[in-house]
Structures are given as structure tokens and as C-alpha cells.
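Deliverable D4.2, example record:
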Amino acid sequence: MDSDQQATLIQPAVVLHPGEIVVDYLEFRGWTQRDLARRTGLTPKTISEICNGKAPITAPTALALEKVLQRPAHFWLNLQRQFDEAEARRLELAKSAEWSDWARKFPLKDMRRLRFLKPGQSEADALLNFLGVSSPESWSAVWSAANVAYRQTRKFTTNVESVSAWVRETELVASELQTADFDELVLRSSLESLRRLTRKRADEIMDPIQGICAAAGVAVVWVPELPHCGISGCARWLSDKKALIGLTLRYKTDDQMWFTFFHELGHVLLHRKKRAFVLDNAADSLSDQVVDPEMQRYESEANQFAADTLIPPAALGEFVRRKNFASEDIHNFAEEIGIGPGIVVGRLQRDGLLARHQGNALKQKLNWQFAEDA
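Output generated by the structure prediction step:
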């Protein structure tokens, strides 16, 4: 269905101005507008403007017409309300044509495929309803007010419309999750339980992660990546009592997903009062790629939190000193510290102790399935 067909579906019906109904009553009674003015106590100018569709029927006018024309005030007010709504829709439909260029900056095809957008609406209307705003200007104001701290690097070219659409979907999915009020102590005490989930199969972890985090006031959601986002995850505060961690699952192995998850947890625990909304892109290495030096510090802190939480530094140091990185050794070390072996492989690769092609058989591959339109 193209946009013209969609626009036709929502073309507002023609609704008469209530003044035309008033004219019908005058003709039925054989009255002039001046007769009605004298009977209602309204000025001839007011009656003329109502009859010509240039002025609305207000509550006082409706009460006057109720007495003179014997139709209740709510009858006239409902006519006016219906007309006002139809007129507003007509004007908005005219604007929708102007908004189409703005709407096409969003990845609409992918958003429809992933069922972000409702069918049967014009591109602009579907997008505005999804974003929860009334106009492109409102979207811009809401996005600016969100005060997003984005780990912007020179490596990625992103599209703000795609990013904002992905963020909006994380909000909508998170709104369906019931969480307790945020409790830092509960969350910190849950880190070990979350860490041990790295030993489970990938298809068994989503519900436990959500349940553990919800009990601490954190909604964890997975939303498929959109084109030109370059997003690995986000951490933000939806309110003082509810945090959100969103993951794209753009990565294909468990070590990448778990590191991103604990990285976002680090933002929640370490940067609550410093950065209320952090978007992380998919750069594998920060180094000098980060444009904002302050963000580089926050990212480094979140990285360190994730690395040390997953693999305690003392245990890692002892293992590295052995210099035995065969698959069996890695597996045994993972068993000793109660973590998935793929996490150890990923860490050794990041630290340059293993090549990127070594040890990958110990990693779990992720193959998340999301509902898409047929």
C-alpha cells in the first residue's frame, strides 16, 4: 500500500458547520437571522457569523439556542466539536503532505518490517503515532530535551532519525515491563547472579535477566537494530525509580552481548547523576576514536566495570601468568570462576592474548528471532 492509498484511508469525512443546521431551523420556522438574534439576545453580527460558518457555537450560545430552538445545548456543542475535529484533521492532513520528506528520513521500510509502525496510516501519521508526538517540530523538541549523551566516534556515521526510532521502541517495550522501584543495593547484590547466567544457553537467559533486573528497578529490553544506528546498547533513566537498559543484539556471540550488557549496567550504577541517558555505539575500541573526551572517561569507566565484574582482575592475572590458553585450559578457568568460557575467550582476544580467530569454538552464537511482517 503506497502513501497516497494510506492517506485516502484517513481522509476526514465532510462535516457541516453547526451554523448550517441553524440555517435549516430558521428556514423551517420561517425566521430571519435578525428574528433569531432578538429571541436569543445575541447580536445580529454573532448570528450572521455563526450561520456563515465564521464563528463557533460556544456554551452560552448553545444554552440560548436550547431555549429558542428546543434542541439541548449538548446537541449544538456536539455539532461544533465534530466540526472542529474534522477541520483539525483536514488541516493536519494538508500538513502531512509537507511532512512526508521528514518522514522519509526514517528507515520506514525496516520499521514496518519489524512492526514498529501500525498499518493503514500514512507514513507521517504512522510515524508520529509511534514517536508519540504531534509534529516534526515536536519530535525535534522531545529528542533535544532527552539530553542524550552519545558515544560519538569518527568511525561511525549515524542517522539521528534511525537512532531516535530505535530509542523510542526501547521505551515502548520497557513500558510493558513491571519493575520494582530502583534499588542500587539490590542491583549490586544481583551482579553475581547475572554473571552466572553467562554459563547458560543463549536461549535461556532473556527471561532470567529481565526478572533479576526488574526486581532492582531496571527494565532490560532487546530491540533489533535499525540501519544507520551503529548502536550496541543504551542506559537511561525513565524516571527516578526506573532505569532502562536497551540492547540491539547486533553482535553475534555471547561474549559481545554480555560485555555490552554489563557495560550498560556500569552506566546505571556509576553515572546515574552524571549522564541520565547514554547511547553506546558499536566501536570495538575507544582509544582516540571518541570525539567527546568526557564521554571517553565515562565509557572507559563502564568498560572497566564490565571487564572486572565478568572476570575478577586477581583471578585473570593468575590465569594469564600461567600462559596456558588452550581450549581446555580456558574451559577449566571458566569453570573455576563460574562464568561462560566464551566470556574468557572474548577477554583474551580484546587483551591481545589470543588472535581474533582463536578460541571461538568456546563462544555461543546468538541467533535471536524477532517477529516481522510477512
